[in-house]
Each structure stands twice: as C-alpha cells, then as structure tokens.
Amino acid sequence: MSKHKKHIITLLPGDGIGPEITNAMKRVVEATGVLIEWEEHLAGKAAMDKGGDPLPQEVMDSILRNKIALKGPLTTEVGKGFRSVNVQLRKTLNLYANLRPTKSVPSPNTRYMGLDIVVVRENTESLYAGIENEISPGVVQASKIITRDASIRIAKFAFEYARKHKRKKITAIHKANIMKLADGLFLACCREVAEKFPEVQYNEMIVDNCCMQLVMNPNQFDMLLLENLYGDIVSDLCAGLVGGLGVVPGANIGTEASVFEAVHGSAPDIAGKGIANPTAMIFSTALMLEHIGEKAAATKMVNAIYRVLGEGKTVTPDLKGLVAAYELKKKGLNAVVLEQ
Ligand code: NAD
User: Fold this and answer.
1) In what order do the strands lie in the sheet with 35-40?
2) 116, 125, 157, 194: which is deepest, by most CB within 10 A?
3) Rounded to the nearest whole angstrom, what is the distance from the C-alpha of residue 308 to the centroid of ligand 1?
4) Which residues form the Isopropylmalate dehydrogenase-like domain (predicted)?
5) SS3 259
6) Phi-psi bin for 33: left (phi > 0), alpha (psi -120 to 50), beta?
7) CA-CA distance, 165 to 309, in Å (whole number)?
8) pLDDT under 70 in the chain at which residues?
9) What pTM did the predictor assign?
10) Residue 198, Cβ neighbours under 10 Å: how many?
C-alpha cells in the first residue's frame, strides 16, 4: 500500500502504564513513515474518573467510524466496580475472534527459544457471557454459554487463518470429558469445520493436559483453538513461555470493527515509573499495520524490536533477568535454574 495513504485509527491509551507504552509505540510508528491520524479517547478508569462513564458513546462512535482501534490496557477492579470495558467492547463490537501469535523473543526471560504458537480464542461467550445469579445466600450460579453459531464461526476463523498463513496443525482444547454438552458442542463444531480443511492437521486435547504439555513439550503445538475461558488462561501461559506478558501482541477481530491490544494489564505496580515494556504494544501495532495493508512497515518494526531485544542493552528491567543464563542458553547450554 502507498506510503502516503493516511489511516485514521482510534487510539485508547488506557490506564496505568497505558499512556507510557502508547507514547513509545507512536514514536516507533512515526519512524516507519506510515501516516496515521490517531483519534485519541479516554476509556476505562481514566474515562470513569473524568466523566463517570468508562466507555463513553464517543469512543464507540469513533471505533465504528474508523473500523480499527488500538488499545492500551484498561483497569477493571476485582469483584466490584464497573463492568469490564474490555468485555463490553468485545460484546458490542462483536469482536468474536481473539488472535494471539506467541513467538519467542530473544531475551533472558524467554523460557523456550524458537517457539511460534498461534492462539485463537473465542471471544464472546462461555463463562464470559457474564450470566451470574445468587440463587440463595451463599450460593451463586454462573452460566457457561456455548452456541453452535459462535463455535463454527471461531473454528472457521482459525482454519482460514491456518490456510492463509500456511500453518500446519490446529489443536482444539476442551474439557468435554466433564462438560459433555457445552464443550462437547464446541468440539463437534471444530470437527465439522476441520473436515473442510484437509490440508490442516487437526487434533484435540483436554485443557489440563494441554497446560502440562505446553510446559513440558510446547514444540508439538502449532495453533491452539479454544473457547473463551480456556483461551484467556492458556494464552497467558503461552506468553510465559516466550518472554512474558510484556512481549505478546493481541488482536480482536470482529464483524463491526477490529481492536488491537497488548495482552497484559495496566500494571499499577510499575505505572508512572518509566520502566514499562512497550514491546507488546508495538507488536500489537504491527499486527494492526498488517491488517490495514501496511505489511512492509509492520515487518520493519518487528525486525527492529527483535534486533534491540537481541542486543539486550536498551531493554526494560522485566527483560534484564538472568543475562548470564541467556548467554548459556544461546550456546545451547540449559544447566541453569531460571528463576527471577
Ligand atoms: P498486569 O498484566 O497489569 O500485571 C501483571 C504483572 O506483569 C505485574 O507485575 C506487572 O508489573 C507486569 N507487567 C504487565 N505488563 C507489563 C509491561 N508492559 N512491562 C513490564 N511489566 C509488565 O495484570 P494484573 O496486575 O492482574 O491486572 C492489573 C489491572 O489490569 C487490573 O485492573 C486488570 O483488570 C487489568 N487488565 C486489563 C487487561 C486489558 O485491558 N486487556 C488485561 C489484563 C488485566
């Protein structure tokens, strides 16, 4: 695409470390020469504090108009406060597919070098449908919703992605031995779609075993396909294998718009200290650039980050870790206990 085409993108810097990593990201994008007009808005806690609404209508209008948004992390209080803005965005914009390419970065914190696993998570239902009732004092019920439509749609997304990006294998993750109806339906839909993509290998694994296998032998996986809750948990596990939350990008692809975001939270423990790692935000921006047809700029950005991380000099404290261990790992020697 032309270097001179201007893109209008909604930008939500977010809470906590959000504004810091957003500023770093903007400087990197500027260096690529891609022309972007950022329509910047407050959302989450920052918007709540300012105007009493964590997701003002103008934010939704902007995203719906531009069709693309880039988002920093948004704070959601645990067990109280306003409903998660992330969940609201996903539901309102029908952001049904969550895509997290997890690739090892050259850093002392990287447990496994050379890993490249794409996680595809259904983003709209399961226990995240938010249907909870207090049946009687001390008894609460949460409903897990799995539908054929959403399961077929996410399975199609995963297999089409595999075909387009020449990925070899998809593993559907489930707990259908216990949740025979809900996860059974999810699996049945995955199988149905898999049959239409004979060039992509397909297998299934129970989620607890999958977690162990990911830690013991992650190289067996190419793409993972999961319902919402397992996808949320397993994608963070995958992030831990390749360098941590600070280096993994995410995309929420929807029918109305797409929202790109780092997978980590607002990190209140380090906010304002100037030590937040902007890598995940920059990698998410690269995914966004690819999505809007600016693949050359995206590749340039990713390669530059790999080079900087590989040098290990100008990196944030979370990536400094055990440099000596990293040097040994590079030489293929792993006889080091990797503890922080
Ligand atoms: P978190 O991801 O904010 O932090 C977990 C740990 O990782 C912390 O020690 C933090 O310092 C570190 N960390 C995270 N991102 C980092 C970065 N870029 N550079 C360096 N270190 C980084 O998770 P949490 O503490 O569980 O959640 C804090 C808040 O973020 C909560 O309100 C939660 O709801 C919210 N959250 C938002 C999103 C999102 O907007 N997508 C995702 C997860 C959590």
Assistant:
1) 35-40, 6-12, 68-71, 258-262, 249-253, 97-103, 116-122, 223-226, 169-174, 201-206
2) 125
3) 23
4) 8-336
5) strand
6) left
7) 25
8) 1-4, 78-82, 321-340
9) 0.88
10) 8
